[in-house]
Amino acid sequence: MIFKICSKEELPKLFDVLSENHIVGPVKQGVDKEDQAIISFDIVRDFSQLQLDYSSAKFSPKKYFLPHQETLSTFDMAESDWREKVDFNIGKPSVFFGMHACDINALNKLDKVLLESVYPSPYYSSKRRNMFIIGMDCEPQPFCFCRSMGTDTALHGFDMFLTDLGEKYFVEILSATAFNWLKNLETRDPTEEDHLGYMAAVAERNKKFTAQVDTTDLTKILDMVFQAPVWQKWGERCLSCGTCANVCPTCYCYGVEEQVSLDLQRAAKVKHLHSCNLIDFAEVAGGHNFRQESHVRLKYRYYHKHRGFVEAFEESLCVGCGRCGEACLAGINVPEVIASVRGEED
Ligand code: SF4
Ligand code: SF4
After folding, report:
1. pLDDT-based confidence at residue 77 (cuts at 50, 70, 90)
2. Is the pTM of this model over 0.85?
3. Candidates 58, 240, 318, 328: which one to mutate for ligand 1, based on the most atoms within 8 Å of Cβ?
4. Are 145 and 320 in contact (CB under 8 A)?
5. Would you kindly state where each structural domain of the chain is located, as residue ranges?
């Protein structure tokens, strides 16, 4: 890894150099009832729109590489047969400005399934390979438990990563593209003092994490409590609204719908992101639903994230961003659910 120092005043220059691409970054969408800024990732056309000091974003940038809805293929009736057209929906190269470590790690986890597994998705890969990522350090919020999940720092999955050191950024460079683009800015090599400044900033940030999840032996414990009443307790509270999956940067489950025109001349296969908490998630042809009860669906969400994915990839599918708990109207959040599964709370 190469390290550089650049003054904060240089960053707009980088934005200008990159502006021939789509730029996606944290943008203020409004304020909540406590007058706090609501931040979400959006297309940015001017550097001043970027809220680089944002604390957390309601939604990760997931929709840009894993859209909620995507047409996989279309069909036209030609003479007496269907003619198929497949479009992987490749967009312009996109620059992601200001992604936090949790969202970069979420992307790395999605890569394991959608890019590197036995059945990679060409739709995901067409967008993922077109991304340039500028990471940004963050201020831990009371609901962030990324440190427990080992995702509070990003070691790969970005092109460059900026850490705020007051008037300047400590820049980590991982790709040749980032190195070349940085030549448009005034930068310098870090001194011993900069290294110490970086380490002090990291140590200071580490002190601010409060929320925790104990992941020790969690896969084993989940095997032990599969039939335990604790799932009923949380399941009875669950509204089966699917919001948790909607805001989650790592949820990728989906359904595919066949849409056929009334005159039977055109058709489309359309993919929708789904949520395992929605009532019809496990409904199959003929109408049988394998997970009719909300506690069974909630349980499977936790088993996918903290049990099945760990078995397959030796890491959890949760990055500890805390978004699901913040968005859940029923107050269901990962630290409390896991604590009660471990018998630590009523
Ligand atoms: S856990 Fe919360 S957000 Fe998720 S489906 Fe249940 S009520 Fe909705
Ligand atoms: S399960 Fe919740 S805390 Fe974990 S990555 Fe998804 S939204 Fe974030």
Report:
1. confident
2. yes
3. 328
4. yes
5. 2-341
